[in-house]
């Protein structure tokens, strides 16, 4: 009898999954072969793929056609979610960690569950922080172009040993940065009012009372917090003019809106900020006329911090598994 019931349940799930229409927008998932793609292909979903991040204007005409999203940093605004709810939309599985592009209040109000994939990209992103830092301090980004053009101009470089790195946000990524910072001989300080004390103790991070305390001492500031109303323009004009240690390097692999771009430009022009190293921008993809993109003291990568084979497979598999769990629980 139990076996018969199990067979009926399996048949029900097969029918349910085959009726499920899924929109996949994350390009990392699509561009990177691996177990995550195999897992998705096994589910008998009808899957459409578009290359995100998609804007509200792109999503509004189509969102009501799908039961579920496996999304990246698409604009899942209140109007998009309302349009989706009037149609077929039942589940949102976020590939990655950040949820700031999803109107979570509206999703909850409409009864649309949203999941994400914490704890899967900290190694990749923390490695990218130091890839940016070393590329800048050793002028790799400039020397590469010199020798590629057949030249032999030699810049004077910087060491990071003995410098102070200020980590803003001591979550999974921040902790990995702290671990690597200590190994490179950096003095590691941190600011995070929500940090677990044992994390700071484990990695010998000297926690600061305020963000300004951290900013005043740091030779390097690296940002690892979500974008919220409280963290928007964390790097602002007042901080640049009155608090930052002259010659500071600012690294942003978190969210573009954590910085006031005009304040950073001013800081770079006045040499208060020695370098701005970014893997994220306030506008993505980057417009052709984006401010500072040609400046020698700015190093921009196109949101690839977690785009490694290992991390994509972990995140992609987690996103598919989250969707399967939501469907089964429903």
From TrEMBL:
Question: Would you indicate the residue range of the signal peptide?
Answer: none
- Give all residue intervals belonging to the D-isomer specific 2-hydroxyacid dehydrogenase catalytic domain: 35-329
Q: Which Gene3D superfamilies match?
A: NAD(P)-binding Rossmann-like Domain (3.40.50.720)
* PROSITE patterns the UniProt entry points to: D_2_HYDROXYACID_DH_1, D_2_HYDROXYACID_DH_3
Source domain of life is Bacteria
- What are the record keywords, sorted? Amino-acid biosynthesis, NAD, Oxidoreductase
Q: Does the keyword Oxidoreductase apply?
A: yes
Q: Which residues form the D-isomer specific 2-hydroxyacid dehydrogenase NAD-binding domain?
A: 130-305
The cross-references to Pfam families, in alphabetical order and at most eight, read: 2-Hacid_dh, 2-Hacid_dh_C
Report the sequence similarity comment from the record: Belongs to the D-isomer specific 2-hydroxyacid dehydrogenase family.
The protein's name in its UniProt record: Phosphoglycerate dehydrogenase
């Amino acid at each position: 009898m139990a076996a018969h019931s199990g067979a009926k349940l399996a048949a029900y799930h097969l029918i349910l999954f085959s009726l499920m229409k899924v929109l996949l927008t994350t390009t990392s998932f699509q561009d990177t072969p691996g177990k995550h793609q195999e897992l998705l292909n096994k589910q008998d979903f009808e899957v459409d793929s578009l290359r995100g991040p998609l804007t509200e204007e792109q999503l509004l005409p189509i969102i009501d056609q799908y039961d579920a999203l496996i999304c990246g940093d698409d604009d899942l605004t209140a109007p998009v979610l309302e349009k989706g709810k009037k149609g077929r939309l039942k589940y949102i599985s976020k590939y990655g960690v950040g949820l700031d592009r999803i109107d979570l209040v509206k999703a909850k109000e409409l009864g649309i569950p949203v999941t994400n994939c914490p704890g899967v990209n900290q190694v990749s992103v923390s490695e990218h922080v130091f890839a940016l830092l070393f590329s800048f301090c050793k002028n790799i980004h400039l020397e590469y172009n010199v020798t590629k053009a057949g030249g032999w101009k030699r810049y004077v470089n910087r060491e990071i040993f003995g410098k102070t790195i200020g980590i803003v946000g001591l979550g999974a990524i921040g902790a990995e940065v702290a671990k690597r910072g200590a190994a490179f001989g950096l003095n590691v300080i941190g600011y995070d009012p929500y940090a677990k004390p044992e994390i700071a103790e484990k990695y010998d991070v000297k926690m600061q009372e305020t963000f300004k305390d951290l900013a005043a001492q740091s030779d390097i500031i690296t940002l690892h917090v979500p974008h919220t109303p409280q963290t928007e323009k964390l790097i602002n004009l007042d901080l640049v003019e009155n608090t930052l240690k002259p010659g500071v390097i600012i690294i942003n692999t978190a969210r573009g809106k954590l910085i006031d771009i005009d304040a950073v430009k001013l800081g770079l022009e006045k040499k208060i900020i020695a370098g701005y190293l970014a893997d994220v921008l306030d506008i993505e993809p980057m417009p052709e006329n984006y401010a500072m993109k040609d400046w020698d003291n700015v190093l921009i990568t196109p949101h690839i911090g977690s785009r490694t084979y290992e991390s994509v497979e972990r995140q992609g598999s987690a996103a598919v598994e989250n969707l399967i769990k939501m469907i089964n629980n429903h």
